[in-house]
Amino acid sequence: MNARIFAVADAFDAMTSDRVYRRGRGYDEAAAELEAFSGRQFDPQVIEAFRRVPREEWAEMRRRSLEPRAESEISAGLHDAATAALFITSRVASLIN
């Protein structure tokens, strides 16, 4: 189940993050794409839990993931994308378990 949750978290983070070749999508557009692929690419149970997380929590997780990292976290390989996906994974898992 954790891998299925992480797949959604990672996809959401990838869609909403700015890249050098494109701007990140907004919450609504990214959530609509996850919904469109529910049952095909993503576990419907995970998508249902994802929808139950209030939008304000997503904004807070995003803000926290972009905070400067301590040197120990950087050397341990925890970078922004991984941190955002881990925040999301943890929150969605709490709604499934």
Could you provide a short overview of the structure?
The chain is built from six helices and no strands.
How far do the termini sit from each other?
10 Å
The number of helical segments is 6
The percent range for helix content is 55-70%
The sequence of SSEs as H and E is: HHHHHH
Number of strands: 0
Q: What structural class should be given to the helix and strand makeup?
A: mainly alpha
Taking pLDDT < 50 over at least 5 consecutive residues as the criterion, the unreliable ranges are none
Strand content: under 5%
Mean pLDDT: 81
Our Rg estimate from Cα atoms comes to 13 Å
Shape: globular
Largest sheet: none
Q: Helices and strands in order, then pairings?
A:
Layout: H1 2-16, H2 27-36, H3 44-52, H4 55-65, H5 71-75, H6 80-96
Structural description of this entry:
- There is one protein chain.
- By secondary structure, the protein is mainly alpha-helical.
- The protein has helices spanning 2-16, 27-36, 44-52, 55-65, 71-75, 80-96.
- α3 (44-52) packs across α6 and α4 (55-65) packs antiparallel against α6.
- It is globular and about 30 Å long.
- The N and C termini lie close together (10 Å).
Features:
69% helix, 97 residues, mainly alpha, 6 helices
